Structure formats: structure tokens, C-alpha cells
Structures
1.
Amino acid sequence: MQWHSPPCLLSLAPVHQSEPPRIATRIQQMRAVVFHGIRDIRLDTVPDPTIKNPTDAIVRITSSAICGTDLHMIRGSMPGMVEGTVMGHEGVGVIEEVGSSVRNLRPGQRVVIPSTIACGHCSYCRDGYTAQCDEANPNGHLAGTAFYGGPQQTGPFDGLQAEYARIPHANVNLVPLHPEITDHQAICLSDIASTGWFGADIADIEAGRGKTVLVMGCGPVGLFSILGAWHKGAQRVIAVDRLPDRLDKARELGAETINFDEENPIEAIRELTGGIGPDRAIDVVGVDAFMPTKGPMRVLEKRAEQYAEQVERLAEAGADTNAAHFAAGDAPSLSLEWATEALAKAGTLAIIGVYPQSHNAFPIGTAMNKNITMRMGNANHKKYVQELVELVRRGGLKPEHILSQMEPMTDVIAAYETFDAQNKGWVKVELNPAA
Ligand SMILES: NC(=O)c1ccc[n+]([C@@H]2O[C@H](COP(=O)([O-])OP(=O)(O)OC[C@H]3O[C@@H](n4cnc5c(N)ncnc54)[C@H](O)[C@@H]3O)[C@@H](O)[C@H]2O)c1
Ligand SMILES: [Zn+2]
Ligand SMILES: [Zn+2]
């Protein structure tokens, strides 16, 4: 791991469950990353969260992280953010306080926080669809996924890029950690690893043998989708991106890589698969898909027109494809198009890249005429987090290798900008809220 600034390793050392609660000494004000507007986030001092419902817990966050989903929201390509919302949906910490109805946890316990919020008792939660919980979203049972630090439609709930966070339905939304699992490991499970596992799961890789899996996008979630695909029994994984450092990581994980700034990805995929295409594809790019900036695909100037309407729709919500920082993607449906075109006939497309409700472009004709099966959605984090905690404890996964940066909270805005600019080596940023 590359350390940007002197890390305070001690503050990140596993805290044993017997650590006494610090309720008495808790500060009343905390630092948090706050959304003020599109392309405008700030490190503010805000009041500490407090228990609102007897099912809540307050967690002192010892590790957080910046996700590609946070970028969509700051870029404006995932609209609906409310000014004042604390950002972030990845967190590990120590329980400070529990409400009177939380019967399975106690202050002092180390926990990882699954990104999406579930009630644990509705029919969806009982079936494992925790990201479609009927109860957790205050906007009602049809509003969709509830998660921390998201747009109005998702709650909104204050997020986890803060010193403290309120966790609703804490009995199900906190997963205790074994002392031997480090914060560096656990922070990867909160969202990126569990989403990668979810993507590989809904791509239905396990059914049958000899599966060739295409992973579109080699950000942190894409890299965990590669690992998830191997875990589910893939025989070959092909990964597409344009950033050489991320493609190098994908190659280290055993994927056959294609740089879409250097070659036509569809032709390269066909060549690698005997003209057939992959059996499974996982889109891990989402709405901020970018057009090639060079190479043979750059000549497709007409594509700019093709995406004009999609880009205009994003612009209406405040996104700007030409902004100096936090520029939105200029080809929102491109990854979905490439994945659908590349897939073998009767293949399966899993979509875990995030698209806003206003996005309605998808190559349905191509998919229909190839008998493509599609599955998609927000990860049902809870189930995968629990599974992955056990896998990491047994030594079956070393998720911390995907982390590339450890940044103190004092540098968080600069860290966001550098991650957004996709500077070389900036694959996944872990945040230390206490530093
Ligand atoms: N479904 C869920 O529950 C869930 C959870 C977490 C993240 N996500 C989503 O997963 C996606 C990836 O997250 P991340 O943190 O890895 O983001 P990221 O921004 O770090 O990675 C996206 C990658 O896609 C690449 N890319 C851009 N245009 C492309 C194109 N045309 N073809 C192929 N690759 C292209 C980028 O270069 C980048 O490496 C985001 O959309 C994020 O919102 C979904
Ligand atoms: Zn995320
Ligand atoms: Zn529920």
C-alpha cells in the first residue's frame, strides 16, 4: 500500500471488543464530509449524531473510504443530493452507544457497516433482498434502496465519512468483527468487495462450467468483481478499462486485459473468445462511462451525437462533462452497449454500475435478439458482508491489497479530487476519520 501521509497505525489497530465505551468523553461536534452542491463538498464541523430511535446505534468510525458512487453524486450524474448531507457509505468502527431495543450488540464492539440499510424483518429482508427493504427507506416502501450519504430518494441518511455515525436498525446493519480482521480489510467489505461478490453472484457464474466472464470497468468494485468471478468458478476473466494502472491490477488478479484507448474492445473480445463472446458480463462502470480518448475507437465521432441527449439530461441535473473537477462521463450508456454487444448469444448481463432513475438508454434490441438474460441492482450488502468477514477470517481473501491510499480526514477534499481525476495509482482511497 502507498501511504500518502504518515499514517497513524495505532489509531487503526484492531480494537478489542473489551475496549470500554467512550460515551462520557464524546465530543459534541465532529468533522464530516458534507455535500453543499454539485462539485462542492467540504470538510465541516457538524453536531455529533444522536440516538433517534431505540433501534439505533452510534458508531465511532475508525475507517471510511471514497467510492465511485460518491463521485456520481458530486459530479451530478446521480442527482437529488440534499445540501447538508454527510457523504460516504463505507465504514468500520467501534460501537459507542446502543438504543434500548438493540439486544445483540454492546458498546465497545468493533463492527463493519454494510452500505445499504435494511430492517431485517420485512419480507424482502427475509428473502435476502436487503437493498429493497420495505421499511428502511423513509420515503416509503416503493422508494427503493436506502443507504448512507445518498440522494433524497435513498433516505437521505447522513453518511460514514465522519467521526461518528447513526446506524438505524443496528441489530441487522452492524456486522461484528473478529479481532484478527484489520480495519484495512474490513473497510473493503463494507461495499466494494460485497458489491463485487454480488455482481458475480447475479451473473450466475456458478451454473454450468467453463464460464468466460467479462468485467467492464476496473475500479475497486470491478477488481472485486474479478475476484468474485474466480470465487464463483469462472474459467477465464476478461477485463476492460482504459487506465493502465487499474488494468495492471486486473492482470495481477488473473484477468486478460483490454485497454479501450488502444484497441476496439469488441474486436479484441471476439478475438479472445473464438468469435463467440463471453458467457457472462458484469457492468461495473455506471453512468459516468467515458468515451475513448485515443486509439481506433476515438474515430467514432458520431458517438458524441449519440450520447448528446443522455449528456443533456445529466446537464439538466447540474452535471458538466467539461468541468475541471468532477466532470461527468460523456458516454453514459457506452459500457452497457459494449457489454451487450460483446456477450455470447444467450449470455447473462449483470449490471452493478449505478445509473440514476432518469437514465433510460439501453440497447434493448441487441439484448432481445441475442436472448440475453439481465440481472441488476444495488448490492444486498448485508448477506455478502457476513459471508466475506468469515472468508477473510479464514484467510481465503486478502481484500486490503486493493487499497492504494490511506488519507487523513484533513486531506479528504484533495483526496476526492485526486481520486476523481484518476491519478496514476489512485485505485481506492481509505480515509482515517480521526487523523
Ligand atoms: N450496485 C451497487 O450496490 C454498487 C455498489 C458500489 C459501487 N457501485 C457502482 O459500481 C461502479 C464502479 O464503482 P468504483 O468505485 O469501482 O468506481 P470507479 O469510478 O473507481 O471505477 C469505474 C471504472 O470504469 C472505467 N470506465 C470508464 N468508462 C468506461 C468504459 N466506457 N468502458 C469500460 N470502463 C470504463 C473507469 O476508467 C474506472 O476505472 C460505479 O458505478 C459505482 O457507483 C455499485
Ligand atoms: Zn459504494
Ligand atoms: Zn426490510
2.
Amino acid sequence: MKSNYKNCTFFTSAANLSGCPESIREVAFAGRSNAGKSSALNYLTQQKIAKTSKTPGRTQLINFFALDEGYFLVDLPGYGYAKVSRTTREAWQQNLTDYLAAREPLIGLVIVMDCRHPFQPIDEMMLDFCGEVNLLAHVVLTKADKLSRSQQQQTLIRAENRLRRDWDFASAQLLSSSKKQGAETLSRVLDDWLYTDYSSLDSPYPDSPDDGLGDEFDSEFDSELDDELENGLDNGLDDDLANHPSDTQTKDDAC
Ligand SMILES: Nc1nc2c(ncn2[C@@H]2O[C@H](COP(=O)(O)OP(=O)(O)OP(=O)(O)O)[C@@H](O)[C@H]2O)c(=O)[nH]1
Ligand SMILES: [Mg+2]
């Protein structure tokens, strides 16, 4: 089945896991602050449904966008934004961790990375996390328009090699929201994830091996992710504060 992403509509915002709506299946856009998550969603849906901003930290709630009945795309707050008060940051990162670790209908993460600074430690941690909890993962290298054609190709090849080596369950693509490049590939991946019947499989990965490390490791891993989200944040890469045609604040109740 294919979704018509143009018909996607804003559904609700949740401050934390308990505020999330009932859902059959959902895919979340995760990534460092300012990486281009909300812009990618707007480009994919050809609408200005998610708030974007040149100021990192624009998206502060878990925002649900409805596709077909019970199917959602989710725009997450960025990780890596340290320029809010410590209390706000901790609460916000805790809500994000809870969502990622415990949200049942969540089937996969689109991990959005600025193509000029891919695979930051927190991105790597996210990929590890996906492998650990059997979440599907697709890396979207955004702002491709900032690179020449040959740099784009090099960046994609490097990313694919990196994934093959360390996270072989994950795929990658380039995307530019401003130059409208990459939405078709992204929609194919999402269609595949959202509408494949996984009911006969234990895991979305047909042959994903059990790491044999057991539950104790899982909870250690969750708390490591917590720490990373809380502390290993702003490394000064938020240098792309250039305005972009899709910078808007269209949906007052979503952020
Ligand atoms: N040149 C270019 N700029 C982009 C692209 N995508 C996003 N941007 C710009 O990058 C900035 C951040 O974009 P957002 O989509 O708000 O980023 P975000 O990841 O949702 O950020 P948070 O909500 O803070 O986590 C904005 O100034 C966008 O205009 C792109 O493909 N090309
Ligand atoms: Mg955002």
C-alpha cells in the first residue's frame, strides 16, 4: 500500500508519552536540533504542517501527523539543543527518551543528519539504540543542496559504507528540502515500513540476530541513552542558521 503524503494532516501534540494518541503504527523523525527534521516532513507532505526555524530547538513537543486511519508520522524535538534552561532540557530529553524506549506503535526512526556533519556521537547512539530494540532505521542526509553533486555522492557512499559496517540494518539517502530532492526515496521507505505486514515475524528484521546480552544490558543501554541525550549535546555544529523558504510557523498548536 502507498500513502498519499500530501493528505497528511496535523493531529495532535504530546508533551510526554502518556499524552500520545492511540495509534496503529508510526514512524518518527529524530535527529539533532536544526538538522532539518520538520523541513523534511513539510517537503514530504508538500505542506507547511510542521514548524521550522533557523533557531535550534523549534520543535519542543512530540507532534503527530495523521496519514491513513491510525497511521502517523511523528516530528520529534531535536536532541542536541542545549540553549534552554537545564530543567527544561532535562524534562524534554526525558520525554523523548521515554517515547523512544516505550512507544509500542513506533516501528522505525528516520534519523535526520545534516549531510555536512553526519554521524555525530548522538546519531551513532540512536543507531545503536535502533539495533538494540529492533526499530527500523533510515538515515536522511539533509541539506544536500549545500554540497556539490560529487560531494553529495561521496557523502552518500561514505554513509552507506559506515552503515554496512556498523548498522547493517539501516539504509541512507540524500535529501534537500529547499531544492526538492529526495522525497520519492523517502516515501518509498516509509510506505514499506508502514504498510508491510510484520505479524508473522518476531521482529521487523527477518534475520536480526539476538545479541544475547539480555535485559540487564537493555536497561543499562536506556540509561546511557538518557545520559547522552541530557549531556552530550551542543557541540557547536548548529552553524546553519541560514533562512530557508520553508521557514514558517503555520500550526499554532504544534511546536
Ligand atoms: N539549505 C537548506 N536548509 C535547510 C534544509 N532543511 C532545513 N533547512 C534549514 O535548517 C534549519 C532547521 O530546520 P528545521 O526543519 O526547523 O530543523 P529541525 O531538525 O526540525 O530542528 P528542531 O525542531 O530544532 O529540532 C532551518 O533554517 C531550515 O530552513 C535543506 O534541505 N536545505
Ligand atoms: Mg523541528
